[in-house]
Amino acid sequence: RVPWNDPASIKRALDAGAYGVVVPMVNTAEDAVRAVRACRYPPQGDRRVGGVSPRLFGGADYLARANDELLLVIQIEHVEAVRHAREILSVPGVDAYLIGPNDLSASLGFPPSYDTDAPSYREALETVLRVGKELGVPAGIHVSSAEVALRRIEQGYQFVSIASDTAFMAAAAGSAVGKLREGLRR
Predict the structure, then answer these.
(1) Are 133 and 162 spatial neighbours (Cβ–Cβ below 8 Å)?
(2) Is the pLDDT of residue 135 over 80?
(3) Residues paired with residue 97 on neighbouring β-strands, in sequence order
């Protein structure tokens, strides 16, 4: 995941060896076009050819294959992106999308949450999922737990990320401390 829809950030990630990027806050078709152009070499894009790093890790024919092999996942994480979902997901070169639930929740006026249960949030997810299915663009979403991941997969999401490394470490640490306290009470 690059920090922003910025050609320099995208180039840096790809030149470092990434075979795909996740681009946040893609709210319009113009944003999607900017991300595609930053990921692709001419004539499909504006990615600069200079530098030897990509050819070192990708092989001598990297430049000939890169446009077909690199994955561009755009993040839909704002109510504005939901409104423009059809235009965004119709941009050639957008390979998949990922729902950013915290920012989407916040843009709808709710506290940031992986699993907001508000009707307007559910409607936003349904809208984008329907459009993605119609256009054949794979859907992803970030969730809080395996249980929610299974529910989202049943709904049609094709890839999910669960919680965060920090959340997993905090849960494991909390469990270890709880077991330690329990053992000390005996």
Answers:
(1) no
(2) yes
(3) 74, 139
